[in-house]
């Protein structure tokens, strides 16, 4: 699948991100990807449009390649795939800043554009379709 880099963000690994095994808990990776996704939307000045339409996450996945541990700083790279009628794929790569060549985790999500009042999918807005291509 073709993918286009749209955002890179850095985050500190927090002490509270770790679990009893001394590494970042697997659920926290989804939080890292969510934060990167929201920062990308905010960078475009978008969260919910005036017509009440918004992206809705319909699935998410993550492959854990290597354990992250505190302390440290990570970089989350966000990529997007080609646009469908009402959906698109986002992919993320998570790396430590001090080990940029090592892929610690990779994951992604499928987002569907939804009319929140009607609770059904609608075509992607043209401005977003332009970004995705």
Major sheet description: 6 strands, antiparallel
The percent range for strand residues is 35-45%
**Oligomeric status of the shown chains?**
single chain
Give unreliable regions as ranges. Answer: none
What's the layout of helices and strands?
Elements: E1 4-12, H1 26-43, E2 53-64, E3 73-80, E4 87-96, E5 105-115, E6 120-121, H2 126-132
Which terms summarize this structure?
133 residues; alpha+beta; Thiol Ester Dehydrase, Chain A; six-stranded antiparallel β-sheet; 2 helices; 19% helix; elongated
Structure description:
This protein is of the alpha+beta class. The protein has a single domain, classed as Roll (Thiol Ester Dehydrase, Chain A), CATH 3.10.129.10. 19% of the residues lie in helices and 39% in strands. It is built from two helices and six strands, in the order E-H-E-E-E-E-E-H. Strands 1, 2, 3, 4, 5 and 6 form a six-stranded antiparallel β-sheet that branches. The model has no long low-confidence stretch (mean pLDDT 94).
Task: Provide a compact summary of the structure.
By secondary structure, this protein is of the alpha+beta class. Helix content is 19%, strand content 39%.
